[in-house]
Structures are given as C-alpha cells and as structure tokens.
Amino acid sequence: MRILEWQRLDAGARRAALARPAQRVSDVVSAGVREIISSVRRDGDAALRLLTTCFDHVDLDELAVTPAELAGARRALTREQHAALERAIDNVHTFHAAQELSPLTLETMPGVRCERLIRPISAVGLYAPAGSAPLPSTVIMLAVPARIAGNPNRVLCTPPDREGRANNAILAAAELCGVREIFKIGGAQAIAALAYGTATIPKVDKIFGPGNVWVTAAKQAVASDPDGAACDLPAGPSEVLIIADDSVRPEIIASDLLAQAEHDPDAQALLVTASRPVASAVADAIDAQWRGLSRGLILEQSLRASRCILVPDLPAALSIANAYAPEHLILAVREPRRWLAGVESAGSVFLGGWSPEVLGDYCSGTNHVLPTYGYARAYSGLSVLDFVKRITVQEISAAGLRALGPTAVTLAQLEGLDGHADSVTRRLAILERALLAEATSS
What we know:
Layout: E1 2-5, H1 11-17, H2 27-43, H3 45-56, H4 67-76, H5 79-97, E2 104-109, E3 112-120, E4 123-127, H6 136-149, E5 153-157, H7 168-176, E6 181-183, H8 187-196, E7 206-208, H9 213-223, E8 230-231, E9 239-244, H10 250-261, E10 268-273, H11 276-289, H12 296-302, E11 307-310, H13 314-324, E12 328-332, H14 336-340, E13 348-351, H15 357-362, E14 388-396, H16 398-414, H17 418-441
Parallel strand pairs: 1-11, 4-5, 4-7, 5-6, 7-8, 9-10, 9-12, 10-11, 12-13
Antiparallel strand pairs: 2-3, 3-14
C-alpha cells in the first residue's frame, strides 16, 4: 500500500490520490449487450437457453427453479447456516420496516387540499450474482424491502452452475424472504428477460441488484428504453475509506481494507490517518495478511489502486472523505460519534473499532446496496422507498380556486404560457358568473 503525504501533494496529485480505477464499458461489451437484448426480445426463452449454454456452459431443461430444487437447497444447508440467514433477515426487516411511509393529507391553505399516496411498484426484478462469490446476502437486501413495500410480483434471477443448479444459499434466502418466482438465468440475458419478459419470465417495472460489467451495461440499456425497466442505483466496484487514529489495532484496520479489496480487481480500499506509525503498521499488516486469503489473485490486482493518505489532523481526514464520497466509511477513531456530524457524503458509516463493515454487508440491518464511484454525493443506499411510488393528489374547492387561482395566472404570465393561464381564468370566469347569477336571483 502506497503512503502519500497529503500536504506535499499539489492539486493534480491530490486528484490522482483519490482517483478510482477507470470504469469503461468497452465497445465489445456495449455491442454484445445490445445483441443479447435484441436476441432475448426476438426469441425469448429459446434465446435464454442458447445464451446460458454459451456463457454458463450448461443446457437447461427448465428455466424456473422447481419446488424440488428449493427443498434440496433447504436440506443442503446446515442448521447454523439457516440460523445465520434467519437472523440477518430479521435484522434487515427490523431496520427497513421502520422506513415505511404513511399517506399524507393536509390543507396548504383553505380550500386547497394536497395528498400523498403510497403504492407499491407492481413487479420488481431482483438479480443475485453467483459467480466466484454467490451472494445470498444480496437476496436478503433486495427481497426484504420488497416484501415490506408489498410488491405483489417479485421475480428473482440468478445464474446456474455447471450442473444447471442455482446456488443453495441463494435459494434458501429467497424462500425465507417469500420470493416464489425464481429463475436460473444470469448475466445481461437475465436483465433483458426481466425488462421485456418472455413466455416463462414475467416482465417487471424495475430491476434491482449488482452484477458484473455486462449486467451493469444491460441495466443501463433497458433503463434508457421506455419499453424496458427502471433500475436501482448507479453501481461500480466496492470501496471503503477508513479514517483511523492510534487507538485502533493496525491488523484490524488491515483486515477491514482487505475485506473490501477482495470483492473485485477494481475494488478500492483507502486509509486516511494523521499517524505515520499507524500507516506503516497497517501497510505491514496488509502485506502479512493478503497472501493467506483465498482470493489472493484478486487482491494482488485491487491493492494496486489502494493507498494510505497521511493528513495533519482528523478534520483534514474528514474533508478528504467527503470529497471522495465512499460507499463505506469507517471512523476507527476515539469518540467516533463526535465526528459523525461532519460526514456529508457516504453510502454507509461504521463507528468505532468494534463496527466492521462486514456486519453491514450481512446482518446489522442496514442495506448493503449502496452508491459507489462517488455517487454517494447525490444518491442514497437502497431502502423501502425505492420499491414504492409516491403519488400526489390535489383537490381544490371553488373557494380555494378563487383564492389561489390568480397566483397561478400571474406565474403563468411570467413564464409566457397563456394556455396555462387560460385554464384557470376560464374557471374563475365561470365562478364569477355563477356568483353574479346567484346575487341577481336573490
């Protein structure tokens, strides 16, 4: 891990110190995704079978996961594994259930009633990767808020293995979360099937879940098509920024950095500290730990984009964190809550030396689908709100129109939209005539 002294860097070097690995969708990927989407739209299930043979190297008789497969997945997991899934689901449910919105109704002024209705998205697609690291935790993070939101149609896609089976832990998590429609389809073809529908896989309105560059490119493509499906968050490789002082053990900080760096060759792990001994000790601990981990080849690549930044003090460290806007921010310092008020941009924050980011990945209760690549400056992590629609309603009485209508007319005239003004003035004229007729008859 390179150690950089912030105070000695010029503006360009500082930008480089906080630069993420470049994420470029190659022309080959873009063209390939377009062809996959076109093929699925044209040939439906036949295209899905052909693409699964091509990319996953297995011929599928059935795209849907059967009840027998679900039962087999249940039996394949140990009691301890079931208990871990259930506890994670309980904690995620507890945190997300508190996020539910209530309908809202009020009068902004006499005769002007405004309301907000909450409606679940009719059909949602959930995507769970299952490549080198199958992610049952992602199923939990997607399916629990979908269940709380009340989405009536929840469809899960996950890639099959070489035997044509879906990952047992993914299936068990899905069943525990109440997902009933599960399909053994992965990659860009799964996104296309969810976005446009096939004879077997129903079309959805919004797609959730992470994936590789093909999945990400496919989500972006279908989200830009009015006939496709919306998608959840801008996403890139995982990342963590740790602010540490000399109160923490260097080997623990090293393990937190490695936990994120092992996700992907383009993952990034940053340490920001005012202590040179801490920086050196963490770098040594990383060097001692990473070779003993099973994903050493990935770490060998991702650690090239990781670095330690030496700063004069903690306020400077917090300023760097806000500029970087990390997916995960760990405040491994004395009195970490004291510094929380200064956090402006981060996907999720972990306070103190006993709060490993890994618990947020799995089971603390917060959602691990978070904005990456600097999007935390403007986006939030996944919540129940992402699975519902918020519809506003207005009801204006005759008295309300008389009181508020002239304001709308004036604003319409300011904008040069006489048609807008006319829709109000015609109503006002009708009201005036009615009042006049009433006064005359009396």
